[in-house]
Predict the 3D structure of the following.
Amino acid sequence: MRFLSVLLSVPVLSYASADIGFNLDIDAYAQPVSINAFTSNWHDTLKSGDKAFLQSRAELFTQNSHRQLSLLWRYDYLLDFSEQTAQLYHAYANDKLPIANQVYPLKINAKYSETYGIRWLQKFKATPLLTWAIGLNLLKGYKLTNGQIDGDVLFQQPSFAVKDIKNAQLDVFYHYDEPQLQEQQLEWHPRNPNGLGFSIDAEVNWQPLSNLALNLTLYDVYGRLYWQDVATTQYNLSCDCSLYKHNIEGELAIDSHYTQYLSTHGQLSIDYHYDAAWSVGLKSRFNQQIALWQPSIAYQYKTWQTRFLVEPQTNSLGIQIKNPYVYLRWLADDLNTNQAHRLGLSLGIYKVW
């Protein structure tokens, strides 16, 4: 379980007149414990939840009214797990005891990649009120973890000692650039794999009324990373530990070819302008796991717009400030970022000629 602790999103076509710009966008969410605890020792009060994610991108681009060309860096990390897995790991990390005679289902599904590359976005004007765009990303992958752990464990005594585990069954199958399950203790030190791939993005901007605008941005509508010489761990373990009986089948190996499927994610926003100064909006940031909705209200003063954000699902508040040259966004569920389960931060800088 790992996060990259950086946070920052700006619609790609926010300012079509900008010739050169830079966007940095990161959103993170950890349901069971704070983001800080999730990435370190889990020393935090446990809450309900079975999801965690961090998605970020940095983009240096040049554009005109017809197309955009970007240098791109991306970090995509999605983690699903059972609540019982979180409960068991939290107990272990905080020197607490498991519950005897209770079956703990163990389930973890991880999708993680780090890439960089170039992005070509071609824009089209269907009508004066409707524009759309198609983007092609050519990507170089250099980090990955992709796979799952499934099983269950039953403790006959409230203890993590092997003799107090009545029985356990575990299936492990994942690919990675670095071992995540202490495989190095078996003298397993694989080399970093090589990955090349692509993905397709899409964007639609529609203004059905003079004071109403809709925007939909989809990243990785279709995307693949093709890895070569990827390390993999594939094991099936069954154990009647109280009787010291166990069976282990599997291997540590190198797959010459492995295809990683990129998950679609994106943003949907609706803005309604009461007048020249005031507007309200509704935005959703979504990925394969969850869609987080943000109602907002904004005030325009000359070239500056200030927008106040609310995210009810995560009990988060935020603010964003923008003009034609700069964009800033901050969102959190706690002013103490070490205690925050939800964080979002954006930065945009534009040069308009």
Residues 19 and 63 are 5 Å apart (CA to CA).
